[in-house]
Specification:
Shape: extended
Region (Disordered): 1-23, 51-74
Radius of gyration: 26 Å
Distance between the termini: 75 Å
Biased composition (Polar residues): 1-11
């Protein structure tokens, strides 16, 4: 009887089971205007806490900023 109930419930739900893997999205190239806007936001905000109580500045942001600025200057 349990087999009969499970068989009928499987037939009643026509929805496919969701896949277990998640869809991964690839990053797209940034437009020049978007890059300029991002640089202005990064310069304006205090993301690396140089102005705050945090004593060690974020070196990763400095590397990103220098590479973005050199790319924009080309």
């Amino acid at each position: 009887m349990a087999e009969r109930l499970s068989a009928t419930s499987a037939e009643e739900s026509p929805e496919p089971q969701p896949s277990r893997c998640r869809r991964r999205y690839k990053a797209t190239n940034m437009a020049f205007e978007e890059m300029v806007k991002m640089v202005s936001i990064l310069r304006r905000e205090d993301y690396d806490a140089k102005k705050g109580p945090y004593t060690q500045p974020n070196m990763q942001k400095d590397k990103i900023m220098s590479s973005v600025v050199t790319a924009l200057e080309k």
